[in-house]
Design brief:
By secondary structure, the protein is mainly alpha-helical. It has a domain of 229 residues. Helix content is 75%, strand content 3%. Strands 1-2 form a two-stranded antiparallel ribbon. Helix 3 runs antiparallel to helix 4 and helix 15 packs antiparallel against helix 17.
């Protein structure tokens, strides 16, 4: 139990499965079961979100440690426990997961018409895995949730995706599974050396410097694929293009954050010396991702593929911030992760709105939508500007802090990192101009309808959060300030101890 005697994290983690069980036992005509499945999924995910608000209001931002901790013996003979808890780094990602899930359910209300029961069940299972991964404080439990995300996401892409859905789903599964096998070997090595899988204990365990190097690359193999970093990013455009709209929202909004979260939870605190040693490698890969994938995005004719490549570029900025090892860089990376989760999810929803009406994502097939869809044009404009990093939106503050942190490390790193904002402006304005402005010449666009009340309900919370984060970012950065400061101090102390030890040995 946690310090309040109420297992809030377990309730938020496992309640989606309760809704899933209810959906499994629904009986009746297909249309009735489909309608009931939608309703159960929406009600369940909404209740989970309301419960998760207890984390927002009950979290003590001055405490850098883990809160709402729950611990129950599970496999005591191997030192494995069911342990849950959140700190400033993880708490808002739990909320991000619980916010986006009901939005995805509502966004799929009309677009998913086949196997609706299984679709809604997959999303509820996916929510459990996402929330559990951010809450897990035992390495073994974390690995189970981390890998558990693969199965429902594989089904969402492979069953309800586009024409090449099977190829995209298999590619997604193989890429992520291959990297995770190496992390499993690292988990076994960590357990054999430290004698525990307790994450708070491992975060302060002094692993031998030689062992840190290969552990770092084992973690990198898994986390880099999830981010995804260049050159292991090629699964992402295919997965986004073929996934249903809600699948793309969760993929960009939450799943890409799992890799960056892994760096912050494992690589930096457990392997501080190796993280500092290989930071230049991470910077090089991140800069290539920012510049190269931005130019690739400029060349795209598919709206989803353009936004997918933009995600790789934005996550390149995140990994730059994480490995600056200073408060500004890491805080900016965390804020950029949250902002990207909201904004990229909203952009994929914008694509889904016109795809549901026209059944094409080819940019050249659109134009002049501002004449027929003014509300849609406004929403698309807001999220486009946020993706570009316009001041006053969520995208600005995170990128600015990352660049400040990068400037403290190296001027050229900050310079090349800033190219992402410049190129991002180019490809996002290119997309917006082609789709929204111009002459409305196509006959099939003249009867297109503006966003419906249901779609307004989907976008409304994302609009509020995007502006809230841009106008008052302190309400978010305050959550992790103490935890990030503690992480940076731990990193500096570990490096100072390693330098001192090397001097003594020499």
């Amino acid at each position: 139990m946690n310090q309040m005697g109420f297992p809030l994290l377990s309730l938020v983690t496992w309640m989606p499965l309760v809704g899933g069980v209810v959906i499994m036992f629904l009986r009746g005509e297909a249309a009735v079961v489909a309608a009931q499945s939608r309703l159960v999924a929406l009600v369940t995910s909404t209740i989970v979100f309301l419960l998760s608000l207890g984390l927002w209001f009950g979290f003590n931002s001055a405490d850098p440690g883990f809160q709402f901790v729950e611990q129950v013996p599970w496999l005591p003979q191997w030192g494995i426990t069911y342990k849950m808890g959140v700190d400033g780094i993880s708490v808002l990602f739990v909320l991000l997961s619980t916010v986006l899930t009901p939005i995805c359910v509502l966004a799929s209300w009309e677009s998913i018409t086949s196997r609706v029961r299984e679709y809604m069940l997959s999303f509820l299972v996916l929510e459990t895995m996402m929330v559990g991964m951010f809450c897990a404080l035992d390495f073994f439990v974390f690995y189970m949730f981390f890998e558990g995300v693969l199965l429902p996401m594989y089904l969402i892409i492979g069953v309800w995706g586009g024409p090449r859905r099977v190829y995209a789903a298999v590619k997604f599964f193989l890429y992520t599974l291959a990297g995770s096998v190496l992390m499993l070997l690292a988990l076994l090595a960590v357990w054999l050396v430290a004698g525990t899988t307790d994450i708070p204990t491992l975060m302060h365990y002094s692993f031998p410097v030689g062992m840190q190097d290969w552990l770092f690359f084992a973690f990198l193999a898994s986390f880099a694929v999830k981010v995804p970093m260049w050159p292991v990013h090629t699964w992402l455009p295919d997965a986004h293009v073929e996934a249903p709209t809600a699948g793309s929202v969760i993929l960009a909004g939450v799943l890409l954050k799992m890799g960056a979260y892994g760096f912050l939870r494992f690589s930096l605190p457990m392997l501080p010396v190796a993280s500092a040693t290989f930071a230049p490698l991470i910077f090089a890969l991140s800069v290539v991702a920012v510049v190269y994938t931005s130019f690739v995005a400029l060349a795209q004719q598919d709206m989803k593929k353009l936004i997918a490549y933009s995600s790789v570029a934005h996550m390149g900025v995140v990994t730059i911030g994480i490995f600056t090892f200073n408060v500004q860089g890491i805080s900016g990376a965390l804020l950029q992760m949250l902002s990207h989760g909201i904004v990229s999810g909203a952009l994929f929803l914008c694509v889904g709105v016109v795809y549901d009406r026209m059944h094409t994502r080819e940019i050249a097939r659109y134009g002049g939508l501002a004449d027929r869809m003014p509300v849609y044009a406004f929403l698309f404009m807001l999220f486009t500007l946020a993706s570009m990093g316009l001041p006053g939106t969520s995208g600005f503050v995170g990128e600015f802090l990352v660049l400040v942190g990068a400037f403290e490390v190296n001027f050229w790193l900050a310079l090349f990192g800033s190219l992402g904002m410049i190129l991002g402006t180019a490809y996002m304005l290119y997309l917006y101009r082609r789709v929204i402005f111009g002459a409305l010449t196509r006959a099939d666009l003249r009867s297109i309808k503006d966003v419906s009340p249901r779609e307004v309900m989907v976008f409304a919370p994302l609009v509020v959060i995007t502006l809230w984060m841009g106008v008052y970012p302190l309400s978010f950065t305050g959550f992790w300030e103490a935890s990030v400061h503690a992480l940076v101090m731990h990193q500096q102390a570990a490096l100072a101890g390693a330098v001192k030890l090397a001097g003594v040995v020499h």
